[in-house]
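User: Reviewer 2 asked us to show a designed sequence for the structure in our supplementary figure. I'm pasting the structure tokens here. Could you produce the per-position amino acids so we can include them in the response letter?
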């Protein structure tokens, strides 16, 4: 049971703006970055990326900047993330896997490997359109599997990052696992590239910090949609009614995927589209509504079928667009 002091500390943390958090790379995160550094040094790679705290994992396109979610900074923030989000915070093993993957992106950009003819032949056209929704083939031998959702099949850049991570991971056993498969040629190429660029200074040192935590002026409670007075009393029925027009209850769903997982997966593309459509909007506001809808969908176990995903993406984007428009007009009236 929480003590009174612990409850007060938790209340204060939830009501702290994210931009005011004293975030530093230490503890579990620092240990994992040091472990990654040792792996890179062993391979002769001198390049080190620019790390910063933001809202999610990522490497800003064609820069050496790796974004780390702010909630990975401390045990208290990781606990809040686990409690109020369906995502499972990475443990040491998961964190290292994500760091290896993101470093793969940064290395690609730092040496502009995506311009190389052999890179394009093996992985594809780096400039092709990036699809948030993609149909993966779990039986394909052309790709490695490292992160969830067969991420290597999403885009050539992700294919490279996943292949690099598998090659770098000392516990991946890739020589045996991928022998006599098309993915082995990609792994061999990673080895060849690293041998060629090791000990070199990178070509590109462009820093690109996309929405660092210092710009996120919402409180942690607002970020996770923890606002019982507004959401779960006055607004719950409205949100739930809207969601039930798009998704169906689990008892009627048969073999369907969770709406909460679908919302989380579609968040990047919805944030981008709504941000383009509505002048005066910001991505933090859009994410706030998506997190509310995700939480309610999870609580009521709403579902959809895989063949409906594109249709439901359009409906969900339209709904969030309406919410954001309504808020902007309400604030300006």
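Assistant: Here is a per-position design you can include in the supplement:
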């Amino acid at each position: 049971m929480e003590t009174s002091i612990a409850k007060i500390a938790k209340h204060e943390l939830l009501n702290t703006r994210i931009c005011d958090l004293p975030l530093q790379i230490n503890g579990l995160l620092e240990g994992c970055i040091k472990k990654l550094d040792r792996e890179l040094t062993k391979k002769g790679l001198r390049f080190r990326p620019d790390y910063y705290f933001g809202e999610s994992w990522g490497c800003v396109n064609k820069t050496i900047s790796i974004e780390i979610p702010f909630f990975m900074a401390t045990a208290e923030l990781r606990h809040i993330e686990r409690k109020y989000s369906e995502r499972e915070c990475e443990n040491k093993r998961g964190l290292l896997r994500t760091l290896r993957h993101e470093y793969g992106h940064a290395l690609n950009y730092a040496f502009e490997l995506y311009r190389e003819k052999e890179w394009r032949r093996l992985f594809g056209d780096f400039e092709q359109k990036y699809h948030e929704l993609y149909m993966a083939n779990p039986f394909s031998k052309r790709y490695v599997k490292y992160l969830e959702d067969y991420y290597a099949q999403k885009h050539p850049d992700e294919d490279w990052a996943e292949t690099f991570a598998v090659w770098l991971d000392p516990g991946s056993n890739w020589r045996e696992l991928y022998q006599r498969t098309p993915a082995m040629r990609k792994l061999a190429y990673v080895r060849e590239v690293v041998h060629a660029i090791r000990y070199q200074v990178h070509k590109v040192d462009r820093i690109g910090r996309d929405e660092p935590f210092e710009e996120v002026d919402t409180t942690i409670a607002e970020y996770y949609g923890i606002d019982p007075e507004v959401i779960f009393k006055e607004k719950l029925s409205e949100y739930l009614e809207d969601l039930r027009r798009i998704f169906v209850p689990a008892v009627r769903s048969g073999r369907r995927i969770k709406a909460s997982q679908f919302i989380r997966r579609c968040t990047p593309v919805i944030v981008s589209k709504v941000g383009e459509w509505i002048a005066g909007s910001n991505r933090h506001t859009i994410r706030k509504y998506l997190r509310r809808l995700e939480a309610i969908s999870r609580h009521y176990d709403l579902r959809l079928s895989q063949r409906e995903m594109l249709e439901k993406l359009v409906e969900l984007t339209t709904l969030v667009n309406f919410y954001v428009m309504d808020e902007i007009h309400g604030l300006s009236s």
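For the response letter, you might also mention the following. The chain has a mean pLDDT of 87. Residues 4-197 form one domain.
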